[in-house]
Amino acid sequence: MKLIKEINIRLQNPETRDFLADAFYPETDEKLPLVIFVHGYKGYKDWGAWNLMAEKLTEAGFFFVKFNASHNGTTVEDPHHFADLEAFGNNNYSKELSDLGVVIDHFVKAPQVDDQKIILIGHSRGGGISIIKTYEDERINGLITLASVDTLERFPKDEALENWKKEGVYYVLNGRTQQEMPHYYQFYEDFENNIHRFDVERATEMAKAYVLVIHGTDDESVSVKNAEHLHILNPNSELFLVENADHTFGSKEPWTEKELPENLSIVTEKCIDFINKNMK
């Protein structure tokens, strides 16, 4: 079976700015489930082993899309590096949800796609964004969270929050690139202005899609308790814990191996089984 890859497709979002997406799909006359991957904080579409995961899901018979959120710090000219820290600092949840909407609207029209079978896979913060979008958009039939947060209220507290408001910006060191990543106070203001919309717990309870919650038991960034909480909120969801897996399921940047890390391979196979069971 021939796999087709369309890399760095330029998408336009009048509410944010242009950004890039990749589409992977098998050459076939069949209509395929549309699977969209949503990266997390300090993530991007080509990070680590996401390309290998994309290939595995495509080989399983899905139309797979991944994209760079418009304000994730990458640019259309340089999609592999945080080349625009000003954009990163001006990112917020409204922009990420808007970008995801543009991605869905664009690819659901692809001739190879079955528009009745739309699945989101969200990693980390992208899991929280995917949960909200699944609640808001009835076209979405399936939701898979990977190491997802159970709340988007992940901001400095008390005195640190006051300092952020006063200074207008705070910085987080990117341990891999050694860049000081800015976060402008507008991020918090956007959250406060849309606090009910960004309620991940409520969206989890109300989501009408099939839901699979995947988490590693040794996640150092987002506690496995987040996954257990999401599962409690949506009792119809399936909880799948990967023993001893970390936040990225063994993947890292750069990923130079030709195979998926063992834990991410387990995760990918579980995603394929889940989609086949509920969407085929």
Protein topology:
Elements: E1 3-11, E2 19-26, E3 32-38, H1 50-59, E4 63-67, H2 85-89, H3 93-107, E5 113-123, H4 125-136, E6 140-146, H5 158-167, E7 169-173, E8 180-184, H6 186-193, H7 200-206, E9 210-216, H8 224-233, E10 238-242, H9 262-279
Parallel strand pairs: 3-4, 3-5, 5-6, 6-9, 9-10
Antiparallel strand pairs: 1-2, 2-4, 7-8
Helix pairs in contact: 3-4, 4-7
Describe this structure as you would to a colleague.
It is a single chain. By secondary structure, this protein is α/β, with parallel strands linked by helices. The protein has a single domain, classed as Rossmann fold. Helix content is 34%, strand content 25%. The strands form 2 sheets. It has an 8-stranded mixed β-sheet with strand order 1-2-4-3-5-6-9-10, with helices on both faces. A two-stranded antiparallel ribbon has the order 7-8. The longest helix has 18 residues. The chain starts with a strand and ends with a helix.
In percent terms, what proportion of residues is strand?
A: 15-25%
CATH class annotation: Alpha Beta
Helix content range of the residues, please?
25-40%
Which segments are poorly predicted (pLDDT under 50) over 5 or more consecutive residues? none
**How are the strands ordered across the major sheet?**
1-2-4-3-5-6-9-10
Shape: globular
Radius of gyration: 18 Å
**Helix and strand element order:** EEEHEHHEHEHEEHHEHEH
